[in-house]
Request: fold
Amino acid sequence: MKPRISPLLIALVAPLLIGADKPVLVPDISAREVQIRYSFSGAQLLLFGAVVYPGGRPPDHQVDIAVVLRGPVQPILVREKIRIAGIWMNADSNRFRSAPSFYAVASSRPIADLLDERTAAIYELGLHNLQLSPGGGALPEKERRFEAGLLDLRSRHRLYSEYPHGVEINGGVLYRAVITIPSQVPVGTYTAETFLIDRHKVIAAATRDIQIDKSGFERYVALAARRHRFLYGLTCVALSLFLGWAAAAAFRRRF
Amino acid sequence: MDIYLPIAGQSVNALFIVVLGFLVGLLSGMFGVGGGFLTTPLLIFYGIPPTVAVASAATQITGASVSGAMVHMRRGGVDLKMAGVMIAGGLFGSVIGAVLFRLLQSSGQIDVVIGLLYVLILGWIGALMLLDSLKSLGFLKVEQPETPQQRRHRWVSSLPYRWRFHGSGLYISPVAPLALGFVAGTLTVFLGIGGGFILVPAMIYLLGMPARIVIGTSLVMILAVTAGTTMVHAITTRAVDVVLAALLLVGGVIGAQYGAVLTTRLKPDLLRLALAVIILLVGLRMFLGLFWRPDEIFSIEYL
Reply:
């Protein structure tokens, strides 16, 4: 997976930008669509692109890039297990109205070195700056506990990740980052945001969409199970009856 | 070889699932049990969401009981009227069970309830089988009870509206088999088990059915109720994963055939001892799972 079109794109875009006084990001992704098929066990996305500077000359000092890939937002309920009479069971819960189903941030240096906390929070850069919109008017202490639980759980399932040195910048102009998607990602429209950061300020940003979808048979099954519940159930029953009968028939001849 | 499960939403090792299905099928062929009580916990240990595991295991039992039911039908070892009454109770039980399942799901207690029920049932059946096999292997001496056992419990014969069940040679109230079916149907929805290990002794000792037709009748009943449960799960929880069920089935139906052949060649008492130990180990693991600090204190539910 090589950046095929970016040099061409720069050549095309560059003349338009010569008059501008701000650098412009030209981002691209190795795949605009990710298809979940029967053998899907995760994917690696290459997020790459170029920075086009006014006058075509990169600045003398180092600029930094942060890339964020985020999945569709889902309202969720996080439950917490507590030991009751010796048995661990769900006791407390907290709602989060806007938790992204997937979140990965890659940056050329750790986020804390790039931006102050307030700016990082505005751009939701870094796991601890995600705006999860906890609901239900819970105590702040409880909210923090549930937020930490959610971040920890999704980090271990590789649904939330941080790559503090995940962006590689070449010649101050070209950048690339590799982000891994695990197999249990939800489908939907993902957005890849790229931020150009210079002296603790975000000076340019650009967004691209990626479609992650179940395809072929997997898509068909998931749709059928949702839309044609009765027929789907009937198919499952028919399949099991047929396989059971076929095995009995096949083995009766052999033994 | 990894394969993606469209409903569970994760990939699993296909070979592992097929082998699991095969081993459980082997057991079901040897002992005439559905094997759901092993499939579901093992799938849960593997990391399949409990709801999906329960729903898809029920589908597998349907397939595993087909060949047995066919054989018994051909031999006339099925009381169709009795099976019909029990199926009616079972389907009703599975619908009520599904409502309870949804309630427990939305209050977040379904996993604990599944775990507790499994511990109780696996512990009970495992202990019974262990005692039984130890007795028949001669490790345990038993005193034969002096009084001959009553043919059926007194409360069953005291129930009103008696029907004649010609296949079983019984004249009893249909309420008892209806209730029995109801319990089995509820368990099928909750635990993804056929309930054969409860049905068979209950049909012999509670209803007083002759042993000759008990296995066939319970197989037909399990076949119908697990098929009904699959429908109930497909419509209410939407947790039936057809790919997972197919993988389990491929292993399971073949395993069941080999199991049936193996029973004639191996010493059954030793096998039963081995099965009892397996069941107790799975039950013990489930039991510890309830009391150990879980790996995940937090869990996520989609709204």
Remarks:
- The first strand of chain A starts at residue 24 and ends at 29.
- DSSP finds six helices and 13 strands in chain A.
- Residues 7 and 55 of chain A are 17 Å apart (CA to CA).
- The mean pLDDT of chain A is 84.
